[in-house]
Amino acid sequence: MLLRTCTRRAPRIGSHSARQLHTSPNPPGSSRLAWGLGASAAVAGVAGMTIYADSNTSPPGTTSLGSLARSYVVYSLCSVSPLVNHSPSILSTCASIPGLRELSEAVVRRTFFAQFVGGDSLPDTLPLITSLRQQNTGTLLVYSVEADDATKGAQWEKNVQEILASVNFAGDFEDTQAGGGKTWVAVKLTALLPSPDSLKRLSTFLLASRSKSNVPYPGTPDSTDVAFFKQGPARTSTELSEGDVAALHELYQSLRQICAQAKKRGVRITVDAEHSWYQPGIDAFVTALSREFNQPSTEGGSKIPSGQPVVYGTYQAYLRRTPLHLAHALEDAKKHGYSLGVKLVRGAYHGQEIAYHEKRMATAKPGDEVEPNPAVWLHKHETDRCFDGAAELLIRHTSGSLTSKYPRQLKLGLLFGTHNKQSCEHVLNCMISSGLAQKNEEGLAEVKPGVEDMICFGQLYGMRDDLTNWIASVFKSNSPMAFKYLPYGALAEVMPYLSRRAIENQSVLSGDGGAAAERRRAGELILRLPSLHHNMLLGLTRRPLQGGKQLMLQRLNRTFHKSHLSHNFTRRVGTWGIGLGSCAISLGAIATIYADSEAEPVTPLGDLLRSYFVYSMCSVPTLVNWSPTILETCASVPGIREVSQAFVRRTFFAQFVGGDTCHDTLPLISSLRNQNKGTLLAYSVEVDEARGGKADQWKKNVEEMIASVEFAADFEDTQNGPRKTWVAIKLSALVPTADSLKRMSKFLVESRPKDEVPFPGTPGSFDMVVFRGAKDHLVKSGLTEEDINSLRTLYEDLRTVCKRARERGIRLIFDAEHTWYQPGIDAFVLALSREFNKPSKGDRHNEQPLVYATYQAYLKRTPAHLARSIQDARDFGYLLGVKLVRGAYYDKETAEHHDVENPSYPVWTEKPQTDACYNTCARLLINELARYHRHSGPQGVTSSSWLEKTLHVSPHTGIGILFGTHNALSCTYILESLVDAGLASRTAEDKIIMKDGVEDRLCFGQLYGMRDDLTDWMVQTVEAKSPMVLKYVPYGALADVMPYLARRAIENQSVLGGEGGAATERRMVGQKIRKRLFG
């Protein structure tokens, strides 16, 4: 029944997966991007591409790229101390916010839960336990739900019942196995009481009741400890209340029931050690239970091998007391005739123990006895020496028990819980030197019969899988010598466990075999995947396969078949990426490496995984919609603010932002130029309307525009050829309140002469009244005096920026915004174009337009608006600068304008209409450029027949074009149109060669962090004397840019959801990862 009902999910483990069991040279969770990054993600619940090997192989060689990526991200995050320290607050805050609660749980489930927890319930762990056993690894089950003082209800009572269920579950599983009894159960006593303070008060009572000894704090148990459970307190106690005594006695009876059932079912119980202020009480429980249940069994009374313990106490080598405490335990076992169960560990709470001692010293009253030294060793080498010394002692006693002629000789059961390979090798050497094992011809340590029942090793699930697999493979024994400590529990209940364990285990996470080491191993293991899978496939096809093996080969073939791999990989890793969500991440270990322009750019695997995670997150509309609220909430909570910023920095910031300052972008800009790509710099800090006049951010933004111009020019002064570092400007960020721009737009729409250009119309000379007209008229028309002053100040500021840009040869691109801002933006750009786009023979930089306006093809007005702009440029004798885009605010526009039939409805209702508009405008612009180039450019450039059918404009009307698009079809159409127009030619190798001078007047652009594949294709396909493609690179301080990132996510949902958007990006990145790993 058990096995039939518990096979619903495949184990997410394997010697080459970090969710796996980690085998020695295996690739567990490689670059977890993201997500780590990360962090993502991110980007992890994937069972994708898991390949199961025959149990006779060593090790099984199962690989899940999703688990590899998840491991990398999880361990990157665990390397960030602020994240670990504030994790309880973060999870608590997230759990209290509807919407965010579900998101955070989804993230944790696909990252930390998937990495460190075996499942929600006992049945959920069965596939994993089964797979572990196939890998010659046992399991130490632990129900990881804790009693919480703040929680109503008796969770502790449920925990006791769950421990009993765990014992029966382990017994049922072992009944299906051929001997060994290597599924044990761990117990954490603080989770089995109504309040852990009862255990703390018991410890205080016992320390005061014991006779004096030379064992350092927290001492060692004696006869008075055991008497407490049978007789109650031997003296009146101010420490213990009647409720404490009742709860402790009830726990003792519950533990007796658990141990009796465990002994009957052949399941061993390990009692976890905890902080020193709980430990005397825990020691008392363990001693009492050991004296009762570790006695030699009567014939048939237990399935545990004769003389072996049922109950194991945990001994922490970082405690100064451990050598003497262990000696006392050995003596007590010998005196009372029971087998001693020892789980030897280093200890996980070093930082808390030091802090606890300092607090005791600081608050001690006169007469209080406080030890001069903390309970723990101060230096790690002291702990290492203590661990190795205790291990030698225990091995020596174990060897003596096997060679002794006396039947009542002390028997031991040993579990060495360590992530330190040197310690494992030391124990192995001690076993060989003491005769408990010997090296055979194959170089394996062949243990003597019965030793595998007495000695074993253990590591936490999700950590040091390489060490676990090494142990499993180096010993030859009749049952597993290696264990995985496997927590389980429902996600909502385990979340406190995960966060508290992260804090308690910082010494583990930061030490040898800790988070940083795990992350490095994950990355190394991923790099071995190609040869690993190739060798597996070859090995399987060299001999006939039947049954399950044949199915496995079919699965391998499906996984590696090109037509299926991309789909499976994308779909499954996609699940991981979404769940990782927020989790980046940290993707701090990810270094951006740019290839040189002579070869196809090589992106680091970590960057690819981060991108996959980020785009998986961007594919979730709910997450995108909630992002401003999530970031705002996180920013309002101390501790969480720092963690959320660290996460965003290593995921979304790293993906979409060039740096905190313009100078921070220099390595990126230089690398882009080395790849034959230009840059469109954008200072992406916005004025927050909610803060109104309290902030002068807009003034700083204007200053930053000038600084951007200077920086761009300084960079271009070091380069050869046309200046392809430009600066983008967003006007709504340059006024005290964006509402001024909105009111200006409303005024202009209502005041302009009527014409046929659809809403929001097109600018003309009348618009200049805002900058030069009488204030009274403007005030009467709806503008406030503050509006007029701020708008005119902005106009003068922009003139200052333009003057400096003209002097330094840097072009300025004015971004388009919502239609309720656009008439005002159009007016500014028109005024500046008429002034600063005038041709000047004496200015070497002014052969092309200085000021570029942005034209949005999703607006119905665009063809007529563009035609009017061309006509205006001819009438006023200036060069027209055009940035043609589709538009990013479609959803906002449709939400603002409800009536589709209304003539003022601004946007096309269908995407094909936008595409057609874009291509029509592109052809018109190429037409104008070809006419201008034919008359003004190098000789020999001719036009095509359709060129004659364009607008009747002056052949000397200059134009500069930036095609901003993520649409590969549009790029192809434009390139073909350039060839048709005689502005470019095509080679036999399908290269597009630009005519001289065209590269000065035309280029393409994509957002930084998006459509790098398209950018790279353009670079490789188009040949010109200077870069033909620009990357739009935002920058700004992280705290200032976070609102930008959130708002851009909302504003750009149409981009993210469309062709070339997040889903497309994710698929393409998935293909790159697959290609990188599997060729």
From TrEMBL:
Gene3D superfamilies: 3.20.20.220. The keyword Manganese does not apply. One of its GO terms (cellular component) is mitochondrion. The keyword Acetylation does not apply. GO terms for biological process: L-proline catabolic process to L-glutamate. It comes from the Eukaryota. SUPFAM superfamilies: FAD-linked oxidoreductase (SSF51730). One of its GO terms (molecular function) is FAD binding. Keywords: Oxidoreductase, Proline metabolism. It is an enzyme of class 1 (oxidoreductase). Its EC number is 1.5.5.2. Residues 129-509, 669-1055 form the Proline dehydrogenase domain. Belongs to the proline oxidase family. This is proline dehydrogenase. It comes from Rhizoctonia solani.
